[in-house]
Amino acid sequence: MAERLGAGVAKTPSGRDVLPDDLPYVAGVAASFGSAPAASLVRDCDTLLLVGAHDFDTGLLPGPGPQRRVVTLDVDSGACPVDADALSAVQVTGDVALALEALLPLLHRRSDRRWRDAVEDAVAQWRAEGQAKARRFFGMAVSPRSVVAELSARLPDHAIVVTDTGSALDWWTRHLRLRAGMRALLSRRLALPGAAVPYAVAARLACPDRPVIALVGDGALQAGGMNELITVRRHIERLAGLPPVIFCVLNNEDLSRLTWQRRWDAGDPRIPATGEVPAVSYAGYTELLGLPAVRCVRPADVALAWEEALAARGPVVLEFLVDGDMPPDWADPDDRAHGGQGPSLRHAADTSSWRARLTASVNRRLGSA
Fold first, then answer.
1. Residue 70, C-beta contacts closer than 8 angstroms, at least 6 positions apart
2. Is 39 left (phi over 0), alpha (psi -120 to 50) or beta?
3. For 208-220, how does the pLDDT look when each residue is reduced to its tens digit (9 = 90+)?
């Protein structure tokens, strides 16, 4: 459908594994914490096709426009999240796959590919910016961006990656690139801290032949995940010979996502007493339970720590001491300066490609300097 229409594709958080991220027109997650190209895609398109998108964030829509049309395709006739009175909306009810197959022959291939080119340019630029950000660190603290970026570069085939709802969600959204055949899991309504560890255990039991990786913040782990590790220890004989199930703990001794929300949404400074998490050696706790653990405290050792954990069999806890002052994109001053929504894809498609406009802008600045 996307190829026929010359469209870009954005994914909801719970639909991350519907299409692999290595497709050049897949713009990432459309959410308040998602990617700038996905936000621009939703904001600037003239037609929005929502395919089984139960958890679509309607706050991304700019409101009614003169040419905006919304088509919702879902098995549930009441699943349309868009107000039909506010936008030109059409509801199609039926099996999603069968309905797409039936609709596809009715559509003509779009010959003007400028919109698709603008989407692919914006996605490529966003990916390159993410790689550059993942390589940055300050002092001797491990960047949480690099933790997920290094995992992404080493993900085994058919892996299942689970995330919790704290700051791990931001890095899972920004730096994890899923390939075909991989699966992703998270709390459906994004409001249940501590879900990643039991979700990972369930994924291991349901799919014993797949590697499973859970990304967990220290606050979420203390909310119940540490007790769940006792359950893992209880079933160690059952799990020991299977592919690894890795519980990756991002330890910054802070409720990082809530702290950043206060800092940037409300303008409050960081107040340790309201967000700090008690200091715990999660690797040490894991070893007390009789489970293997790996602990990484140096930026240079992040890749090596992942390789050691991924080479293991059965359950392992992988603890990273990460920098709590590393802002997610939605709280980064550089991104917030332009609203965090990325360039206008409509303008890029109406003129030249976004990359060409960016190059021209740089050349003008160099010339004036």
1. 47, 48, 50, 82, 87, 88, 89, 90
2. alpha
3. 999 999 999 988 8
- Local structure of residue 142 (DSSP, 8 states): B
What the block records as the tokens of 360 is 């021209």
User: By 3-state DSSP, what share of the chain in percent is helix, strand and coil, each rounded to 5?
Assistant: 45, 15, 40
> Hunting for tokens 């998270």 — which residue is that?
186
71 or 355, greater pLDDT: 71
The answer to whether residue 49 scores a pLDDT higher than 50 is yes
* 3-state secondary structure (DSSP) of residue 296: strand
Q: Which two tokens stand for residue 316?
A: 């392992």
The 8 Å CB, 24+ separation contacts for 346-352 are 346/44, 346/45, 347/44, 348/118, 348/121, 348/122, 349/114, 349/115, 349/117, 349/118, 350/114
Other residues' Cβ atoms within 10 Å of the Cβ of residue 336 = 13
pTM: 0.86
